[in-house]
Amino acid sequence: MARPVDPRRHEARRLQIVDAGLTVLAERGYEGATTAAICREAGIGSGTFFHYFATKTDLVLAILELGTADTVEKAAAHEGRTDPAGVLLDVLGGWADDAADPRIPGFVRAVAGVMHLPAVAAALEADDLAQRELLVPWVERGQAAGEVRTDLSAARIAAWLALLSGGFLERVATDPAFTVDGERDLLVATARAFLVGDRAATE
Amino acid sequence: MARPVDPRRHEARRLQIVDAGLTVLAERGYEGATTAAICREAGIGSGTFFHYFATKTDLVLAILELGTADTVEKAAAHEGRTDPAGVLLDVLGGWADDAADPRIPGFVRAVAGVMHLPAVAAALEADDLAQRELLVPWVERGQAAGEVRTDLSAARIAAWLALLSGGFLERVATDPAFTVDGERDLLVATARAFLVGDRAATE
DNA sequence: GCGTTAGTGGAGTGCGCGCTCCAATAATGA
DNA sequence: TCATTATTGGAGCGCGCACTCCACTAACGC
């Protein structure tokens, strides 16, 4: 028996290909990102590529799963805090910061373009679910603490926070004048106003 | 001299293909929407398709241009009104209503996936410009009338209205629980709060 | 050393696609 | 009616792509 799989080696190579794939997908879109281009970017042959990923779609799925895992991981960082509204704004700010990597908005667009593939749709749904499971409990705690409006359900508020985050990402990708650094604070302020609702005017 | 081009016939056929293209692009994305599928949907042969559009991309551009023209047309409808904030909210509400056609969000996603094509990027930029030229003057009038916050430039406020609209569209496309009918009013209310800013709390 | 197997590159393949081409038809003016 | 030309369908072509195959090397246990 010789040459057993070294998980470290294997994972490192996978990540190298994922990184190259993220770059190429972001700048050329799904159909523009040929496997040949990804291999060139990663400095490998096509044989190596398909040794690690059965199909091009599998690479996209792997990137999405890494993103979802990252979301879940970040969620744990806020465990134990007692300011629910603060947590929500921090989470939203963190997502905004993610958009600072210029590849993220491009990749999101590329993935949106192939959402008709069932596997991709499922992965995005899983990602969306992870986001909700992260947000909703904090929204509920915020409502219980009187920090967050109660005229909307927690799920609906979470959806609207996702709306702000998605719109922000899209805007950064589209509008050169719209930068993460310049608009991040306004995002948080707008989200805060939304979380509070119009109570400020009626109380 | 015989058989001169009949502009009415010509335009009607073009619109028929545009309509079929919108349907197929929305449900299958750009790469999934083969010209053969579009022809089948439209009930025509491929020869006819390429008689009206030189390339598949040209069809996408034609759809985008129709959308931009529609935006400009709608802008004219508000000419003469004296309630700038009301106009802005009506415009935003109108965009939300557009999302009620289930093909629109799907098409937007499909187009986002091929934004790396220079021609598509240019068309989207033109569309964005049309939106701005529609919004910015009303924002400025609203600021002059004291209806709209003045701590942000008119251009920035317009960008944020576009952010809300884009996020709304994406959310409708993604989340089955997020419907136009159910969320339209909240969109307008959120936009109103944003336009006013936090003056309500400080005045 | 030797045997074994993971890892690697790259030539090659098959297929699905956008698009071309052309014969046939329909609609007009004369 | 005839001549002319826009319009139409569909057979098929060429190309670029995802993916296969295989020869080869590198790394490990013994």
From TrEMBL, chains A, B:
Pfam families per record? TetR_N
> Which InterPro entries does its entry note?
DNA-bd_HTH_TetR-type_CS, Homeodomain-like_sf, HTH-type_TetR-like_transc_reg, HTH_TetR, Tet_transcr_reg_TetR-rel_C_sf
Q: Which residues carry the record's DNA-binding region feature? A: 34-53
Source domain of life is Bacteria
| Record SUPFAM superfamilies | Homeodomain-like (SSF46689), Tetracyclin repressor-like, C-terminal domain (SSF48498)
The UniProt keywords, alphabetically, are: DNA-binding, Transcription, Transcription regulation
The family database entries (PROSITE patterns) matched by this protein are listed as: HTH_TETR_1, HTH_TETR_2
Which residue numbers delimit the HTH tetR-type domain?
A: 11-71
Q: What is this protein called?
A: TetR/AcrR family transcriptional regulator
Organism of origin is Isoptericola hypogeus
